[in-house]
Amino acid sequence: MSGLRVLSTLAVAGAMRVMGPRLEAAAGMPVAAEFAPTGVLMPRLREGEAADLVILTAEGVAELASAGRLDPGSATDLVRSHIGIAVRAGAPHPLIGTAAALREALLAAPSVAYSRAGASGIAFAALIERLGIAREVNARAKVIPAGFTAELAARGEAALAVQQVSELLAVPGIELVGRLPAEVGTVAVFSAGIPRAAARPAEAARLLRFLASAEAAPALEAAGLEPVLAG
């Protein structure tokens, strides 16, 4: 791909696609972004795959900075993200406002879709273990290696889709039921950084400043994310 190469988590895919022309204006050149779960991108980055800007979980950015693969001064928290549940448009919305209600909804669902490699899927797998329902849920689960779980709900292949709220909202034909209840939900922070080997570090820095700015915040919020604004 030509242009400024960005390797990014799926969590910001919807917002970045909406902001496409503004991203290119900020960078001063075309932006070629590839979206995948952090768990898929990290092995590639550890092996030295080239990129001008990376957007990953905060833990992923910290690891790459510690390993000397990122300019540590460029590491910037961009957004906070919550895990949610979605259903096919028009389908009934289960009650998920408490841990007990969520447990019952998951046990009652004919099928639940979640991602094996994404931060949300890893957290959800741990959650159903804590709730004591992993065996029952996984017996009917649609576990995808990567991608958008809400696509399965939109096609009627899963009754419930679990993923970051922003990733659910990026898929047409679904309705967001809500976030996981605060008592069991987790909040992920997604951060960005510029690799030391970036071919276009100046352009990447301009794009990063835009993504972290108040100007980008409305699009990030509309996508279901909480911007982390400096100051």
UniProtKB/TrEMBL annotation:
GO molecular function: molybdate ion binding
Gene Ontology biological-process annotations: molybdate ion transport
InterPro entries, alphabetized: ModA/WtpA
Pfam families, per database record: SBP_bac_11
Organism superkingdom: Bacteria
Protein name (record): ABC transporter substrate-binding protein
Organism whose genome encodes this protein: Muricoccus nepalensis
Lineage: Bacteria, Pseudomonadati, Pseudomonadota, Alphaproteobacteria, Acetobacterales
